[in-house]
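hey so i finally got around to running the thing on that chain from the lab meeting. sorry it took forever, my laptop kept dying and i had to restart like 3 times. anyway pasting the input first so we r on the same page abt which one it is
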Amino acid sequence: MGGDYTNIADFRRKVKAALTKIKLVYPGLKLGKTLGGIEVLPESLTALQPRTVTIEGTATRVEVEEPHPPHPFPIPLKTTTIEKFRRFYPRLDPYACQADFDTWQAKLEPSKRAKSYDRAFMGFAAGWAVGKG
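ok and heres what got predicted. didnt touch it at all, straight out
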């Protein structure tokens, strides 16, 4: 949003306008308030269908390479697991990894799915991160 604001009210107004535009192309976005800011909540949907939207009179094509199907068991990652993931893989998105993990888990028979979700996620993340550089 930039660091050139001298008036916090102007900054808030710009942020609200930007979030309105973001929600047009990311309707599953869930935000929460934190001390001094906002955060994207883990229950935000990761699968976005490609579509065209108009923002301020300009046609913008928004596409996603491989939309992830929603997983059959919405299990949020523990905060400690997200922090651990970010320590090990600082440039990677834990929620993108989780979407791939959930897609993989959904293909397994229920009896073969992870018993310890967060532990299995971190094991999956190690291999997943290798493929991401």
